[in-house]
Amino acid sequence: MADELLRASGLESGYGGVQVLWGADIAVAAGETVVLLGANGAGKTTLLRVLMGLMPAWRGTITLDGAAVTHETTDQRVRRGVAYMSELGVFPDMTIADNLRIGSRFAPRAARAAAIDALYARFPDLAGKRRSLAGSLSGGQRKMLGIAKALAGRPRLLVMDEPSAGLSPLYVAEVLAVLGRFRAEGLALLIAEQNVAFLDLADRVCTLERGRTVFTGTTAELHANDALERAYFGLT
Amino acid sequence: MLYHAVLGGLVYGLYFTLVGLGLNLMFGVMRIVNLAHGDVIMLGAYAAWALFTAWAVHPLLAALAILLAFTAIGIPVYYLIVPRLLRARDAEMLSLILFFGLQQIIEAAATIAFGTTERSIPGRVLGHHPVRILGQVLPAAWVWAGAVSAVCVAALYLYLYHSPPGMLTRAVMSNREEAKASGIDVDRVCSLAFGIALALAGIAGVFAPFMLGSVTPAIGPDLNIAAFAVIVIGTLGNPIGTVLGGIIYGVSLMLMQTFLSAWANLLPNLLLIAVLLVRPSGLLGRRVRRA
């Protein structure tokens, strides 16, 4: 793959003695958007947590820019240019300004203030509420803050866990529009989702079933696969 | 008499703010309950006593040395104990058991090292004459203890709200998992908070011989109850809320000692029970329990 940014092969992991991932593979190239589809319990969040170093990989390898990072800590991976937006995504007891400052720690010191100002320009709703607690924001605004916080460190790859969770269709459309703009500027995205609306953003799709990658290909290839088409789009 | 009791209580309460401050910081950041907190205060007291007895080191200088030493000792102790503890399913309960064991060990070791004889540092070391404040006369040692406590509270506030590591500490307090996911080295942040919490307890210990009259290796559990009363009143997990808890505790204690002295020793337990029954989230409540 040209300009490969992230590659994970044969990942196995789980919680305590319960294995969740049984050999998951995924790869993301620079500037590419990959949507990770899977039902509840398929292991999407676990895969993302293992990719970010929040859980150990029992087996398998992870590389970033070709360098093995399987045993690196989360902060080391973030320093390599990968940001993670969890379902919560923000620190609810801290102000919007503090949330962005924390996110910006991974940008070069001289560029941090400019990075935050640029994000305020792109998210004017947040700019007017810098001193408000993140917990006081609506669900949609909180999601925008989560995106802004993750991008404040100027990552090359943004890994997102269900950005549509808990959002009304209106806000889902807004999140999609915002991500589309960052994608157009060259940001690579790895998005774990159940909402098939996110396929509009995808260069490639990866599906996960019971902790195994069962399909990797373009959206068109996914649509051409009858079994997957039925599983994810409910078509007969 | 009432005015004197209130003013004395304010100063005394400032000291008890310091007694509870480290305990609350540790709970707020790590969600662990340090039952050995009172014994760390006791160790601070003995360190100050030993420094004074051996080399006539002034208690304020001893407080500075203890700040550095306890922080430096606290960081490796954190890595030895806490990460393992936090990986457990019920970390809060396990911390109770583990730190109870540590408390017993520290008290036993201190008894072997120092014996059970009461130790004190002459009050004149902190000033030969009482200090007059707002028309009331207070012991100089109390005023010094209150002033140092106020400085510690201010320093902790500046650390938490106006320093980069403090901001990361508040992030961990807000949500530990989100802090990890955001690339914060949570163990580094917590180890520093752990060291600072021990240092605050150690500094409280420096003034214990003056505020309590004397110290023995057995003072830990009583100080622990007072510290718990202070932080539960002021809101558990909110270090700055400790100030309110300390002052309410100090003023109530002084009023009890002045007007109902026979009941004064029951006060920490009564306050603790009353707050837990009436307002379990502390007087400041969850509204201000923010990082």
From TrEMBL, chain A:
<dbReference type="GO" id="GO:0015807">
    <property type="term" value="P:L-amino acid transport"/>
</dbReference>
<dbReference type="InterPro" id="IPR027417">
    <property type="entry name" value="P-loop_NTPase"/>
</dbReference>
<dbReference type="InterPro" id="IPR052156">
    <property type="entry name" value="BCAA_Transport_ATP-bd_LivF"/>
</dbReference>
<dbReference type="GO" id="GO:0016887">
    <property type="term" value="F:ATP hydrolysis activity"/>
</dbReference>
<keyword id="KW-0813">Transport</keyword>
<dbReference type="InterPro" id="IPR003593">
    <property type="entry name" value="AAA+_ATPase"/>
</dbReference>
<dbReference type="Pfam" id="PF00005">
    <property type="entry name" value="ABC_tran"/>
</dbReference>
<dbReference type="InterPro" id="IPR003439">
    <property type="entry name" value="ABC_transporter-like_ATP-bd"/>
</dbReference>
<protein>
    <submittedName>
        <fullName>ABC transporter</fullName>
    </submittedName>
</protein>
<keyword id="KW-0067">ATP-binding</keyword>
<feature type="domain" description="ABC transporter">
    <location>
        <begin position="6"/>
        <end position="235"/>
    </location>
</feature>
<dbReference type="GO" id="GO:0005524">
    <property type="term" value="F:ATP binding"/>
</dbReference>
<keyword id="KW-0029">Amino-acid transport</keyword>
<dbReference type="GO" id="GO:0015658">
    <property type="term" value="F:branched-chain amino acid transmembrane transporter activity"/>
</dbReference>
<comment type="similarity">
    <text>Belongs to the ABC transporter superfamily.</text>
</comment>
<dbReference type="InterPro" id="IPR017871">
    <property type="entry name" value="ABC_transporter-like_CS"/>
</dbReference>
<keyword id="KW-0547">Nucleotide-binding</keyword>
From TrEMBL, chain B:
<keyword id="KW-1003">Cell membrane</keyword>
<keyword id="KW-1133">Transmembrane helix</keyword>
<keyword id="KW-0472">Membrane</keyword>
<dbReference type="InterPro" id="IPR052157">
    <property type="entry name" value="BCAA_transport_permease"/>
</dbReference>
<keyword id="KW-0813">Transport</keyword>
<dbReference type="GO" id="GO:0006865">
    <property type="term" value="P:amino acid transport"/>
</dbReference>
<keyword id="KW-0812">Transmembrane</keyword>
<feature type="transmembrane region" description="Helical">
    <location>
        <begin position="266"/>
        <end position="285"/>
    </location>
</feature>
<comment type="similarity">
    <text>Belongs to the binding-protein-dependent transport system permease family. LivHM subfamily.</text>
</comment>
<protein>
    <submittedName>
        <fullName>Innermembrane translocator</fullName>
    </submittedName>
</protein>
<feature type="transmembrane region" description="Helical">
    <location>
        <begin position="40"/>
        <end position="57"/>
    </location>
</feature>
<dbReference type="Pfam" id="PF02653">
    <property type="entry name" value="BPD_transp_2"/>
</dbReference>
<feature type="transmembrane region" description="Helical">
    <location>
        <begin position="12"/>
        <end position="33"/>
    </location>
</feature>
<dbReference type="InterPro" id="IPR001851">
    <property type="entry name" value="ABC_transp_permease"/>
</dbReference>
<feature type="transmembrane region" description="Helical">
    <location>
        <begin position="94"/>
        <end position="117"/>
    </location>
</feature>
<feature type="transmembrane region" description="Helical">
    <location>
        <begin position="137"/>
        <end position="160"/>
    </location>
</feature>
<dbReference type="GO" id="GO:0005886">
    <property type="term" value="C:plasma membrane"/>
</dbReference>
<feature type="transmembrane region" description="Helical">
    <location>
        <begin position="63"/>
        <end position="82"/>
    </location>
</feature>
<feature type="transmembrane region" description="Helical">
    <location>
        <begin position="189"/>
        <end position="212"/>
    </location>
</feature>
<keyword id="KW-0029">Amino-acid transport</keyword>
<dbReference type="GO" id="GO:0022857">
    <property type="term" value="F:transmembrane transporter activity"/>
</dbReference>
